[in-house]
């Protein structure tokens, strides 16, 4: 079941992100709008588009979330492998995505402090960018 859902969700998520899909959705909305006078802007006319967009949105939320979950898990596995493969890297960071938000924030603060910056200070990023730009 998982393999079938993964295959279907991947195909639909890929198709949904294509320019042609956007054009088809736009044409559908335009056709619906143009058909308004033909149907006298009736309640049924409005209900058709409302129902269709609600159903599509509802289903797409699950498909997109599935796709993002798989992408994030794959990225995390790759990062974990990099940490594992690098000798000086700290293996304790493998799996920290399973910690609570508070625990992760504490780790970030400790790393910023270790880097010589105040935890939560915007300067941490600015200093890194400035250092990078000076290398050029």
UniProtKB/TrEMBL annotation:
Pfam families linked to this entry: Iron_permease
Keyword annotations of the record: Membrane, Transmembrane, Transmembrane helix
Transmembrane spans: 20-39, 45-64
InterPro entries: Iron_permease_Fet4
Name of the molecule in the record: Low affinity iron permease family protein
